[in-house]
Automatic annotation (TrEMBL):
InterPro entries: D-isomer_2-hydroxyacid_DH, D-isomer_DH_NAD-bd, NAD(P)-bd_dom_sf. This is Hydroxyacid dehydrogenase. CDD domains: 2-Hacid_dh_8. GO terms for cellular component: cytosol. Keywords: NAD, Oxidoreductase. It comes from Rhizobium leguminosarum. Signal peptide: none annotated. One of its GO terms (molecular function) is hydroxypyruvate reductase [NAD(P)H] activity. Residues 125-296 form the D-isomer specific 2-hydroxyacid dehydrogenase NAD-binding domain.
Amino acid sequence: MSQPAIVLAMQPSRTEHVLPDEVLRRLSGIGRLLDSKPLQRFDDERARRLLAQAEILITGWGGPYVGPEIPVAAPHLKLVVHAAGTVKGVIDDAIFEAGIPVSHSAEANAVPVAEFTLAAIIFAGKRVFRFRDLYVADRNRNRTHPMQREAIGNYRRTVGIVGASRIGRRVIELLKPFDYRLLLADPTLDATEAAGLGTEKADLDELMRQADIVSLHAPSLPSTQHMIDARRLSLMKDGATLINTARGILIDEAALLSALKTGRIDAVLDVTDPEIPEAASAFYDLPNVFLTPHIAGAIGLERARLGEMAVDEIERFVTGQPLLYQIHLENLENIA
């Protein structure tokens, strides 16, 4: 394939570091980058001019919706690569139906999420946040020293992974060197497949009962919304921790707040529903909640992996190799 015409469509303020200079230089060696300034809309004169020539479209966070008009506006389009995670709400079904291959960099975004989760699990096991709060409040070790005798720490604890997604599987791999017992709840896997991952298969209720730390990695589907409800939260051990780096909608948050207010369990929440809790939400104030603003995924320099993976995929396409991360329409509804 001769050097294809490449067009970018993403919001620069949200995608800084995704395509650093060295990645752009590499991209320019593979194809003809028509404009290094990304499109932020598809309905102006510049967009119409660039799309009319585009053979490869690279999208990213904050970019315009790739709707059903694109195959008409870009009649030569042969590939769409999303240099970010999920393509849900970003790329219309009409693109798939037009026979245009779609790929993404979700595998690259999974790396920092899994690393964040590993850190959260280790800190949760050692009750790091509780130790910090008491130490800072007291300015002495009168309360933290006795806590060290409690049945805490990360030796022979049980970690429950909910969902054998790409992130869930990465977390499992990262946990293997540690002395954890790993439970896995995923209705798409049988016991043999779970064992092959180094885990024990468990149904979700049993996982909630047994795990000292529960980490959510399921996709947002109608069947998974509020899967962690009041009944399942009540199954958790006293002192257990719930970690959510997946989607806020997986948890019935009213039920979670009620459980957290008792002080019986802890939570590490990188995602919520709504995405930003109301200003008066107790999530901001409860001492047993560690709340972060959706930072587990690629931020800062970690975003370079997204661009590198997108360029890798484009290089494979241009040289006639199979795409590694192509998304098919029939699988779209079951992925994150």
